[in-house]
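Dock iron/sulfur cluster; give full complex structure.
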Amino acid sequence: MSQTVETIKPSYPLFRDADYKESLGKKQEMFEERHPMAKIQETFEWTTTKEYQELNFARESLTVNPAKACQPLGAVLCALGFAKTLPYVHGSQGCVAYFRTYFNRHFKEPVSCVSDSMTEDAAVFGGQKNMFDGLANAKALYKPDMIAVSTTCMAEVIGDDLNAFINNTRKEGHIPDDYPVPFAHTPSFVGSHTTGWDNMFEGILRYFTLNTMEGKEVGSNGKLNIVPGFETYLGNYRVIHRMLGEMDVDYSFLCDPTEVLDTPADGEFRMYAGGTTMDEVKEAPNAIDTLFLQQWQSVKSKKFVKGTWKQPAAEVEIPMGLEWTDDFLMKVSELTGKPIPESLAKERGRLVDMMTDSHAWLHGKKFALYGDADFVMGMTKFLLELGAEPTHVLCHHANKRWKKAVEEMLTGSPYGVNGKVYTGADLWHMRSLVFTDKPDFLIGNSYGKFIQRDTLHKGKEFEVPLIRIGFPIFDRHHMHRDTTLGYEGAMYMLKTLVNAVLERLDEETRGMGTTDYNYDLIR
Ligand code: SF4
């Protein structure tokens, strides 16, 4: 074997060595019962046709390469945004291992989250006993100030009642009566990771404020509440902090996991770091208003804020791109009476300058995109502002109202008239779309790389390069630190898009003596 103590190789390039190729070949020949390569290629070609696309879109009971994750994953991210809070998932251990690795691979950070490991007996008799032991052990071992409980499919299928279980855990003396354990049912067979975030957030607001509303008065603390939603760009938390700081606004960031997801390597492991405190949540009903930065994904929490806190929860779209950042800042200014400072006006001017500089390269370029509802909405808006053309706009978990809103936005711009919007669709649908109506680029998370590979397999001229913006991004490092919100975020996205266009141009023009008359430096 080519692997020796002196030449340790990782799987790539090790599996390219002749002996591994031979052994893989034998495995395929002897055990895989593969179809002949010609048949595989013929089937591949068929899957790129319009005929296949129609069959693909007629598919009802199967999801292939979903553009979403499950509810408790969102609940875990939400719990991480609160100070000294341990995310606790009532259900199967394997699910929690998946959530942790998902976040580990995206954030390159350890993520603390426990499960009460329900197994066969709990599936039959209910998971109350697991919760008795689980909550007591989690509190004793990891010493959180609060444990935020969500559920996996298994607990939901058998109908475990979190409220009753947590109350019984207290009654039986496993945890003290006043120990904070907010909870949310997060059944994964409905909704997505963003629904789970919303459910957990509402659960935390409900736990700390529902029965203590007496004496609370909207506006009495003069603050503004900011709710990020399922936000995985750490730069987005930081840019909102910065902009509100520059405006001298007094605010509470309700849910902020930036510290715990970005701890320094200085020899000390921090299970908890930063986050919104319980006192801030208790005080939140006294704020002037609560602004939801991902309003399409925060339906339940927004309803709670309006119904229980009696705050207006003013409508703001995600502050992505130029106009919606303007709208956000103007709304903050209107609510707080603080003017927008010169520093932000200058930053805005720089963004406009960049948009003008790059316009010639982005004008008319076609983009297919997918991801979470608010991100896709904001990205579509920004593409239109840039004069780019969104062609296939896909959100797996969005509703009809969202679809209508995006369609209206597209038809309201000359760059959007050819755009089509898809909900309830996955990345296998997207694959068909980019084969039959090729865009110049695809924008989305790492899973789109399979679409890029498949389009390249058909031929270089069919290749649709993936621009990685979204969640999760596993196969590139540190992109979660970037910023997609505010003028700063728009600058980052503009830079990413235009340089992808220029990179592609270089790729297509570097043929020596053939295409290199356009392989120039004057761009
Ligand atoms: S979909 Fe259900 S079973 Fe699968 S990881 Fe999520 S909670 Fe667990």
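Observed: The CA atoms of residues 35 and 41 lie 10 Å apart.
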